[in-house]
Amino acid sequence: MHCMNKKKVMGTLGIAAALMLLAGCEERDIQDRVEQEEPDVASQSQQNVEEQDLLGGLSPEQTKQPEQPEQQEQLDEPEQQEQSEKPEQILDEPSGTQVQDKLNADRIIQEQSFQVELNDWGEVKIVSYKPDFAGGADPQEDVTFYLLKDEKILYQFPYISEDHTSDYGMYYDVKFVMFTDTNADEKEDVVIGAEYMTGAGPQGAIPHTVVRIYEDNGNYFTYNEELSDKINEYLPWESNVLAKDIKRLLQLTNGNEPLTDYESYTGKWCVGPGYVAAYEDPMPTSRNELTCSISNGNEFSGSLFTEQGITERIASVDDIVGTIQNGELFFEYTDDGWGGTGTLHIMFLPNQINVEVLDHQIAEENAIGYGISGSYEMTIRE
Fold this sequence. Notes:
single chain; eight-stranded antiparallel sheet
């Protein structure tokens, strides 16, 4: 209806402009004839007769050309008023396609929609809007994000693909929406973690998180594909990615200062089971877990636990404490459950924790030699 009205208005303006041009031409012709010296009365009379004959073949409405623009404007005034009362058609950047006037409440992801004070946008609501799979949408259709003001659509965030689908698989869920300055311009940018499933391969049914970063440019947002891809390279497929992980990655990969706040590592980390084991679990696998709690920026406490998959032997180092410095922590242990001693070298990498056992000594009474030894790459957060 909006487009049709626009076409009608443009058509009306075209007709009015043509009639005004015609009236202007006739006025100039009359002025030229007045300026002529001693006009030919007979020729003028003949011309008047010819013009009258010409007008006689036109309809009454056509003979009122000078009044037509005013009349047309009066006819279109209610329609123009109705059009002005409609919400402005918002364009998404950079594609410039028109978005809908109203959202379907059933498609709004309430737990990932928030009322926020966002830069120059003011008090707005960011809305996560899932695809209309029930309505027969493309299975690859991507999730959409909007800014609303007073329940009216203010802005639609650009899709990350031209055809409004995702290259990461089928949409599954929105993991988080957060606001942080990603480019040091003193504006809060929008960082979204969306989950997808590929449906193919051993991990096809495992949702994996993909981050997209939208930078605020004043009256529109730009999708920073380069920085988003850099962050996504750090995210293990199986990991429970949290918003605080992304904040840490942004600081490590996009910042100029070393990381000093390690609290985002708090949680349980484990060694990834591998692609086949994650899907089929064909045989018992070893459990290697590091549970850590970090406070005051870099104060660490936790424990290291291992279980051999086949024999189910268990070893552990409890009550690990210390201060993280330059991304490292050294802790000397005196018993791993089998009498073994050594030093744990714990390294905090951008999105994983590695544990290396140094100077491991097996107890004399430990005939089988089991215990905490070797190295562990903790890439999965549970």
